[in-house]
Amino acid sequence: MSAPLDLIPTTLERIRQDLAGLKMPRALEALDAIVRRLEQGEISALEAIDTLLSEELTLRENSRIKMALRMARLSTIKTLSGFDFAFQPSLDRDRILTLAQLGFIGRCEVVHFMGPPGTGKSHLLDTDLID
C-alpha cells in the first residue's frame, strides 16, 4: 500500500514543514537519509520513525547536558582520565575508579573526601559530575 509517486514530494515537504514547526532540527536534518534507507528497503516504516525520533532525542539530551554544565559554572571541565595519579601517590587509584562508578549511591552510602589543600579532592569530585 504505497502512495502514488506524485504525492511523495508533497508529503515529504509537509513533513519537513511539520518538523520545522515542531522545532525538531535534527530530525529535519536526518529526514532525507532516513527516507533514502526506507526506499532502499534497509529499514521498515516503524524503524524509520524510531530513527527519526531517536536522532532528535539524542540532540536534545546532549543540549540539556551542555546547558546543565554551563549552569553549574564549573571552572574547567575535568575528567578522571585527566587526573594525575602520579602527582598524588597516596591515592588508591582502584578505589577512586570504583567510586567513580557511583555504586555507593544505590547502596545509600556516604562518601567523604578529606585531606589537606592541593591534593585533588575538588578535581575528583568534579570528575564524578562529568564522567
Q: What topology emerges from the helices and strands here?
A:
Blueprint: H1 8-21, H2 25-39, H3 45-72, H4 93-100, H5 103-106, H6 121-130
Describe the overall structure.
With 131 residues, the protein is an all-alpha fold. The protein folds into two domains: 5-72, no CATH class; 80-130, no CATH class. Helix content is 60%, strand content 0%. The chain has six helices and no strands. It has helices at residues 8-21, 25-39, 45-72, 93-100, 103-106, 121-130. Helix 1 (8-21) packs antiparallel against helix 2 and helix 2 (25-39) runs antiparallel to helix 3 (45-72). The longest helix is centred in the middle third of the chain and has 28 residues, at 45-72. The chain starts with 7 loop residues before the first helix and ends with a helix. The model has no long low-confidence stretch (mean pLDDT 84).
